[in-house]
Amino acid sequence: MLMITSRLHGIIDYVVGVALIAAPWLFGFVDFENFAAATWTPIIIGLAIIGMSLMTNYEFSLARIIPLRTHLFIDFVAAAFLAASPWLLNYADYVYVPHLIVGLAEILIVSMTIKQAYMPRGRDHLVVERHA
To answer: Tens digit of pLDDT for each residue in 84-113?
Structure first.
């Protein structure tokens, strides 16, 4: 099975975060009046992904506060919510495909990510999480 390193996962996080923020405009479902939830759900999740990525203990972080395993768990919950949000928030008749596809893709990415950050030599500031 193809495994995603923490480094690649970090890159994916920032790309997906920006894409989610831009998704309402990219896919033409911007409607802040009638379907605000359809518009705001990907924007909020995209901002959360970027914010969490900046604080996760992996290569592309600034603060390294959140353990990678915790980050992946939150990613999974957010992705499941994103995928189900058109039905949970009652806008599936308006739009659901982008939310569902990105949510399911993110669940797949989380399931394929190695649950430990890699620490190359000379990068002592990156703490490796060790779990049995």
So the answer is: 999 999 999 999 999 999 999 999 999 999
